[in-house]
Please model this.
Amino acid sequence: MFGIITTSDEIGLKGVPGFIYNKMPKAAKKELANLIIANFKKNEYEYIDFSDIDIQACVARLPFTQAQLSIIKPTVMNKFCKEIIYRFKEQGIDYIVLPQHIRSNRDIYEKIYISGQFYYLQCKKLLMSLIIDILKKICKIVGKDMTEIDIGIAENRFSQKSQILIQMLSVDTKYITFITQDLAQAQGYMEKICDETGLTVRVSENIRKSLRNIDVIFVLDDFESFIKRTSIHPSTVVFNLDENASTEEQTNILKPIINIVIDSLDIIIPQKIAAVVAPIKGLNKAELVACIIALKKNKNIPTENVESYIEENKEFYNLGCKINALKGYGTPIDIHKLEKIVKNFS
Model:
């Protein structure tokens, strides 16, 4: 079972005559709404079944509407969030999915997610599990084989994530440039990979010179710093796999960047799933699918290894999901823009 937190469709302030409420100052309306909601409203819960895949979700509805989110005081919000946390933990829930309007509220986000009580699966892992399929699609569009493209990976601190990505790419690629500050550690690992797979990996800390003519770049951490420090070819495709990047911050720093930047997916989910979650507005389908896949694999704790990404890829297609579009900063990417990559790949 996993949890979903959302708002209610309609919450009235019963007992307050409309003609009086409408004449009240804005500040007074806010105080009155908080007073009534805090003392007379309760969270509501419902359970929904994904019967075909034998998974259930507990939907917690906060006792106010999406429009009222901005007027609810932190102390009032804290009260309802604490109750949801208790209820979810009592039900043995470890994974949660937050609609966009809930995730955008700082008070809820900090209390529910940053508290560390639950696993909140962003779509970056799902995106990474589908990387090879996406790259093959791009190569097909530009008329090239994956072995013919130059791939770059940027990660300040060499981690298991980059090791996994390199192992995934080693099957279909021949050459990778890896940019990191952990030169010694990375070099030792790359020598091992070279012996095992024949993949050639150049390790460097010079981000400006090393990535000038790269076809595809994967940025695994500190995306904002990467954009500010590097100078890449306009036709280079950038995959943003930094899980800590803020969409708003990325939008601001990328205004002068004309590169195609891919950071998420628009996916088509099967009707058996879509019908169940249709009443819940604002759910990110990729995050929902990532959560379902985690539960189908019976993983109480997310695992990070190559096998887990391969499993996630297989489960994605087994569920009947399809990639509808690549996205950057919430906007679908025009597939025809990929034609300009040919100039760089040629």
In short: The chain has a mean pLDDT of 84. Residues 235 and 344 are 6 Å apart (CA to CA). The longest helix spans residues 74-90. The longest strand covers residues 55-62.
